[in-house]
Amino acid sequence: MFIQTEATPNPATLKFLPGKVVMDKGTADFRNAGEAEASPLAERLFGISGVTGVYFGYDFITVTKESAEWQHLKPAILGSIMEHFMSGAPVMGGASTLAEISDVEGEFFDEDDETIVATIKELLETRVRPAVAQDGGDITFKGFRDGTVYLNMKGACSGCPSSTATLKHGVQNLLKHFVPEVQAVEAL
Fold it and tell me: What is the DSSP string of 38-50?
């Protein structure tokens, strides 16, 4: 098994491409070892000293570290991913609906704004998310209130130094262009 790695705009996050489908539906974002209990693979990765975040996309895994150097962490992470896929164990345990629920749970917007929200979601799905996934992250809709779109940043996007620029200059400008009611974009 050959696993490729790619740098992301976030220096604390590295993208791993195992050459297999990781999550066939939805995504999963683990910010601590306690959350990782829903996934045998995430648990295995959090067992490596220095790992502080794990995110699963369709065909990639991003791992976030604290202070350790990638040259020391990367071999252990590659070994853990390879061992997991070779074992045939599932990526997600019994709580595989975690990813599907977290993408919809807690959305907020006024019923009168339903058509605006539908347009915002379509733009995020077709234009923003594919580009962000290239960098090992994800952006999902959380809410719309008083002209402000609230988004949830995951994976490499979470805590990335360039995420503010991505939000303000990329996503905000795109949404304002296509949806005049949008005045601002904020990360939750």
Answer: G-HHHHHHHTSTT
With 80 as the cut, is the pLDDT of residue 39 above it? yes
Q: How confident is the model at residue 99 (pLDDT cuts 50, 70, 90)?
A: very low
What pTM did the predictor assign?
A: 0.72
The sign of the dihedral angle between the CA atoms of 29, 30, 35, 40 is positive
Q: Are 84 and 41 in contact (CB under 8 A)?
A: yes
Q: What is the edge-to-edge ordering of all strands in the sheet holding 51-56?
A: 4-7, 13-17, 61-65, 51-56, 28-30
Residue with tokens 């994976």: 155
Question: Between the CA atoms of 162, 30, 132 and 156, what dihedral angle is there, to the nearest 10 degrees?
Answer: 30
Place of tokens 């705009």: 9
Q: Which two tokens stand for residue 4?
A: 């490729």
d(CA 86, CA 63): 19
Q: CA 111 → CA 108, 119, 143, distances in Å?
A: 9, 14, 12
Distance of CA 2 to the CA centre of its chain: 23
